[in-house]
């Protein structure tokens, strides 16, 4: 899974860390993605965080690899984002 292909995969269950955000309250939040909506990710760390996708840059851990994704690329309902794969 690479930076380009992660947008077509399921994000729930992946370990995520917020590495960049204009909102200081979101910085360095890390945990596991437990839910995803059109515009937000729910990350369970030391507590439950609801993070707007368009405000952050996220680092996902996939096995021993780390993939950094701009949250703006993840905007959209998960099932619709998956359908975009077949249109390209």
UniProtKB/TrEMBL annotation:
SUPFAM superfamilies: Rof/RNase P subunit-like. Its EC number is 3.1.26.5. GO terms for molecular function: ribonuclease P activity; RNA binding. Keywords: Cytoplasm, Endonuclease, Hydrolase, Nuclease, tRNA processing. Gene3D superfamilies: Ribonuclease P/MRP, subunit p29. It catalyses: Endonucleolytic cleavage of RNA, removing 5'-extranucleotides from tRNA precursor. One of its GO terms (biological process) is tRNA 5'-leader removal. The keyword Protein biosynthesis does not apply. It is found in: Cytoplasm. Transmembrane segments: none annotated. Pfam families: RNase_P-MRP_p29. Belongs to the eukaryotic/archaeal RNase P protein component 1 family. Part of ribonuclease P, a protein complex that generates mature tRNA molecules by cleaving their 5'-ends. Consists of a catalytic RNA component and at least 4-5 protein subunits. This is Ribonuclease P protein component 1. The gene is rnp1.
């Amino acid at each position: 899974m690479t930076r380009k292909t992660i947008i077509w995969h399921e994000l729930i269950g992946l370990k995520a860390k917020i590495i960049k955000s204009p909102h200081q309250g979101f910085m360095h939040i890390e945990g596991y993605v437990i839910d995803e909506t059109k515009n937000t990710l729910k990350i369970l760390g030391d507590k439950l965080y609801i993070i707007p996708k368009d405000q952050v840059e996220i680092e996902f851990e996939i096995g021993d690899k780390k993939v950094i994704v701009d949250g703006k690329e993840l905007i959209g309902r998960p099932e619709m984002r998956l359908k975009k794969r077949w249109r390209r």
